[in-house]
């Protein structure tokens, strides 16, 4: 019995490939397996090759593997594009309809199964994916019943007959496959899972749920890949909590509307990707200068310009750290898993209000769209901290005296009041201003206000700025990354250790202000530092050098072809770097 | 009793003497006092320009944001606190050039705020370049040979974008302007008010005298019906946009707030933020 299985379904976009993957993985999730899925799709809506690769495991997993055990193919392109991933033990389940051909150098076994034909006999070719699921069940030796609840949910509203037909399709696929497999029935049977109930969601859903739990009631946003799921989820849920999502005319409106709502005393945010973030730069400066809290989610995708809209990249980092003209304090947070995405979103809202500044929650396409197993969120860990927001009655002020909304304080944070409060009137402006918000160009005041704003960065209350798995006091190599590269690094760390290369892993979750003290210690304790990132110029490596130095130790390992790092590939490249006289 | 003096603060405007914006400020202060709202119940959100400084000259909450973005900020604020009276204001460059996208879509969205454009047909703050409102042929620093683009017609644009309140006034006519701003603030929906507010320094064409000569008051047109969009459009076109008064008002169409599904009656900024544990459990169930 196996501890891990990798399964992929592929075909033409718009042909139900998504639902095939969805049904299979939801059923596996309900059995208690850990899953990690990654969809390959093009910007086209219909047509074009699409596939969904799912890693199924009995233990925690945050990456897709290099290899493939089972490939379910609905067209020849799926075989041609993906067969190289198959192992020699691997299996292709291909629909007889397209007369599949196995490439000469493909070591896997091809089974030609009449998916479409069986479905057609049952009434509609649409059910070909159910037949394929039945065939998969034969390879995994799964009972058909494990799919019952999923089928009920998807087809329940269409009536009992439709549910029955789909279950029959699964059963027939299963039986048919059993007949073809002979001795190979259950060839890919997995060890039983723990049966625990866990969530199976994309990162964007974790972020959206985090925002809701953090108390967001208004989201302002403009659609873009790979961020749209956040607004699409919240427009379904916010009305129940009195709020809404406003689809604005552009991202400038989205960011400034969120600023206005925060100014009004609620938690509001926006989410976008690179092109939208570029448009928001001036608003980010406004938030910083006027000390209005603002949370912006940036789901990174391939840039620059329109770039690779549906592909993985982590190339917005520098723009997020340093974007907007002039100098303002800003916080940049980068979660790497579904769990972190949820809790870090809440942290982002807390920090934005505590420090009254813009917070950027950085994600990447792999995290935002990759569907993964997530431990249920713990209600008792949800905390709302609003800092020096004073919503109670304010002391009576002298006639026409403005409230000192920008009072110079030790920690740089001033008491915040919101429109509508008696005795709280003050002015807010993006022009340099005095403690009451009135414009002031006086040199002394300018310096005092700049220093005040920047002092806030000394008071970032963030739980776990760096994720560490550092078994070695003296390591041969420290692997560093941010966002979704965590899974691949996690995977190869034990492999390197097994080969005698003492490997530590640090994943940076709070990128700005940079956790220099913590990272320096880890770097000091390693002979070499390899920074793994999905961009061409080694942005995180450069940030580390800027903050820590260690130029002689830090080596950049980059990938910018639009695809995520795969564990074996990464392992090979790390070893290559280490043998290149670097260690 | 609130009076307009309650809306005065102790900041001295840095507008040029004679600038039309002074009267706009006075009219807002008077309108707010007439409506008997307290200074802290009003927020003025402004853009960047000479006109944009207005939020700093009124004793109320105020935010002076970035060029062209007063409208989205104002809408966000209103959504956060539906009890607040929110005015957005700025120049013709602010609202019809860099911020035109927001202007059109704010009109369509119909959030219950009042938008006052201080239209001087020039860029004042940047010292005299052409504006979308400058007439063709107008010589400015950026159009030394005269503007070759036609002037934008804000009233026609607003009417065709589906505005539920369109008005225009002239900054010397404090009485009419105050009444219009009052009506705009009372309107349940987006109130668009264009105000001829002469720039005495950089616009020597559209002067006070020029406006006095060329403006037709709608009140002088017999039988003018401000609930008739077609008539409004025809009248505006006939007078080349040089009319003042309430041009069009539709009191039937609900505002954005009235239409948002589930939108809290209680101002959102007074609501409990924390969701309940059972809510979280229910939300999570969908992913299991
Ligand atoms: C993004 C941006 N671009 C340009 C400017 C420079 N700028 C400030 S005000 C202004 C135009 C002012 O004209 P208008 O909006 O008509 O206001 P007025 O000064 O006439 O009242 C410009 C171009 C700016 N502040 N921000
Ligand atoms: S430059 Fe023109 S618009 Fe600006 S303050 Fe002077 S008169 Fe008014
Ligand atoms: Mg102007």
Automatic annotation (TrEMBL), chain A:
Any idea where the Pyruvate/ketoisovalerate oxidoreductase catalytic domain is?
A: 14-174
Q: Name one Pfam family in it.
A: PFOR_II
Every copy of the Pyruvate flavodoxin/ferredoxin oxidoreductase pyrimidine binding domain together lies at 210-450
Taking every annotated instance into account, which residue ranges of this chain make up the domain Pyruvate:ferredoxin oxidoreductase core? 475-556
Alphabetically list the UniProt keywords.
Answer: Oxidoreductase
Q: Which domain of life is it from?
A: Bacteria
Q: Which terms under GO biological process does the entry name?
A: response to oxidative stress
Supply the InterPro entries for this chain: 2-oxoacid/accept_OxRdtase_asu, PFOR_II, Pyruvate:ferred/Flavod_OxRd, Pyrv/ketoisovalerate_OxRed_cat, Pyrv_Fd/Flavodoxin_OxRdtase_N, Pyrv_flavodox_OxRed_cen, THDP-binding, Transketo_C/PFOR_II
- GO molecular function per UniProt: oxidoreductase activity, acting on the aldehyde or oxo group of donors
Keyword flag Oxidoreductase? yes
Protein name, per record: 2-oxoglutarate ferredoxin oxidoreductase subunit alpha
UniProtKB/TrEMBL annotation, chain B:
Q: Which cofactors? A: Mg(2+); thiamine diphosphate; [4Fe-4S] cluster
Record's keyword annotation contains Iron-sulfur: yes
Pfam families tied to this protein = PFO_beta_C, TPP_enzyme_C
Q: Which residues form the Thiamine pyrophosphate enzyme TPP-binding domain?
A: 48-195
Q: Where are the transmembrane segments?
A: none
All residue ranges annotated as the Pyruvate ferredoxin oxidoreductase beta subunit C-terminal domain in the record: 199-264
- Gene3D superfamilies xrefs: 3.40.50.970
Protein's recorded name: 2-oxoacid ferredoxin oxidoreductase
- List the source organism: Viridibacillus arvi
Source taxonomy? Bacteria, Bacillati, Bacillota, Bacilli, Bacillales
């Amino acid at each position: 019995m196996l501890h891990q299985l990798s399964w992929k379904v592929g075909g033409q976009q718009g042909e139900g490939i998504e639902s095939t993957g969805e049904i299979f993985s939801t059923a596996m999730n309900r059995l208690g397996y850990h899953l990690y899925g990654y969809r390959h799709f093009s910007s086209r809506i219909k047509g074009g090759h699409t596939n969904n690769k799912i890693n199924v495991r009995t233990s925690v997993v945050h990456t897709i593997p290099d290899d493939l055990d089972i490939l379910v193919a609905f067209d020849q392109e799926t075989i041609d594009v993906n067969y190289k991933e198959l192992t020699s033990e691997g299996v292709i389940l291909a629909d007889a309809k397209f007369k599949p051909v196995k490439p000469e150098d493909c070591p896997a076994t091809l089974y030609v199964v009449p998916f479409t034909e069986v479905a057609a006999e049952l009434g509609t070719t649409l059910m070909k994916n159910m037949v394929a699921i039945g065939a998969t069940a034969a390879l995994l030796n799964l009972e058909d019943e494990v799919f019952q609840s999923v089928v009920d949910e998807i087809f329940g509203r269409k009536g009992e007959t439709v549910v029955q037909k789909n279950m029959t399709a699964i059963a027939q696929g299963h039986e048919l496959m059993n007949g073809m497999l002979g001795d190979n029935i259950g060839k890919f049977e997995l060890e039983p899972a723990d049966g625990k109930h866990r969530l199976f969601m994309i990162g964007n859903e974790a972020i959206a749920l985090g925002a809701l739990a953090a108390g967001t009631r208004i989201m302002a946003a403009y659609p873009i890949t790979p961020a749209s799921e956040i607004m699409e989820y919240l427009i379904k849920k916010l009305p129940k909590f009195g709020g809404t999502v406003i689809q604005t005319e552009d991202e400038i409106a989205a960011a400034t509307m969120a600023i206005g709502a925060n100014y009004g005393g609620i938690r509001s945010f926006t989410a976008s990707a690179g092109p939208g973030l570029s448009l928001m730069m001036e608003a980010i400066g406004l938030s910083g200068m006027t000390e209005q809290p603002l949370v912006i989610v940036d789901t990174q995708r391939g840039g620059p310009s329109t770039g690779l809209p549906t592909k993985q990249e982590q190339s917005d980092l520098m723009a997020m750290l340093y974007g907007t003209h002039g100098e303002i304090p800003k916080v940049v947070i980068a979660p790497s898993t579904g769990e972190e995405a949820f809790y870090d979103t809440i942290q982002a809202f807390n920090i934005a209000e505590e420090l009254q500044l813009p917070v950027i929650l950085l994600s990447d396409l792999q995290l935002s769209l990759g569907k993964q197993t997530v431990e249920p969120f713990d209600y008792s860990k949800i905390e709302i901290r609003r800092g020096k927001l004073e919503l109670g009655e304010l002391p009576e002020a002298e006639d026409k005296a403005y409230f000192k909304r920008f009072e110079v304080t030790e920690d740089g944070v001033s008491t915040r009041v919101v429109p509508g409060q008696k005795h709280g009137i003050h002015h807010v402006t993006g022009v340099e201003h005095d403690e009451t918000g009135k414009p002031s160009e006086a040199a002394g005041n300018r310096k005092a206000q700049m220093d005040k704003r920047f002092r806030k960065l000394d008071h970032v209350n963030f739980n776990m700025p760096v994720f560490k798995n550092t078994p070695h006091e003296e390591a041969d190599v420290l692997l560093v990354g941010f966002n979704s590269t965590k899974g691949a690094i996690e995977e190869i760390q034990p492999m390197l250790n097994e080969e005698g290369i003492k490997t530590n892993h640090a994943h940076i979750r709070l990128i700005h202000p940079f956790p220099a003290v913590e990272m320096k210690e880890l770097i000091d304790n390693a002979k070499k530092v390899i920074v793994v990132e999905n961009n061409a110029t080694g942005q995180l490596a450069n940030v580390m050098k800027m903050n820590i130095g260690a130029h002689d130790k830090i080596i950049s390992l980059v990938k910018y072809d639009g695809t995520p790092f795969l564990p074996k590939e990464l392992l090979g490249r790390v070893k290559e770097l280490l043998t290149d006289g670097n260690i | 009793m609130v009076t307009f003096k309650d809306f005065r603060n102790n900041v001295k405007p840095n507008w040029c003497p004679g600038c039309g914006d002074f009267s706009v400020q006075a009219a807002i202060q008077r309108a707010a006092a007439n409506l008997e709202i307290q200074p802290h119940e009003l927020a003025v959100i402004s853009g960047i320009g000479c006109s944009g400084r207005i939020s700093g000259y009124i004793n109320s909450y105020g935010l002076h944001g970035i060029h062209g973005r007063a409208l989205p900020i104002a809408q966000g604020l209103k959504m956060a606190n539906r009890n607040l009276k929110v005015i957005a204001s700025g120049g013709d460059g602010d609202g019809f050039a860099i911020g035109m996208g927001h202007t059109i879509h704010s009109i369509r969205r119909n959030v219950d705020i009042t938008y006052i454009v201080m239209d001087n047909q020039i860029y004042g703050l940047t010292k005299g370049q052409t504006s979308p409102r400058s007439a063709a042929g107008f010589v400015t620093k950026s159009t030394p040979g005269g503007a070759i683009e036609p002037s934008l017609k804000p009233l026609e644009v607003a009417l065709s974008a589906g505005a539920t309140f369109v008005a225009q006034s002239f900054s010397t006519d404090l009485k009419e302007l105050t009444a219009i701003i009052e009506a705009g603030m009372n309107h349940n929906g987006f109130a668009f008010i264009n105000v001829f507010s002469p720039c005495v320094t950089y616009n020597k064409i559209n002067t006070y005298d020029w406006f006095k000569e060329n403006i037709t008051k709608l009140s002088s047109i017999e039988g003018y019906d401000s609930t008739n969009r077609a008539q409004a459009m025809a009248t505006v076109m006939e007078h080349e946009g040089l009319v003042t008064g309430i041009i069009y008002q539709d009191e039937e169409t609900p505002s954005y707030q009235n239409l948002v599904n589930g939108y809290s009656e209680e101002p959102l900024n007074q609501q409990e933020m924390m969701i309940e544990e059972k809510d979280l459990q229910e939300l999570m169930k969908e992913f299991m």
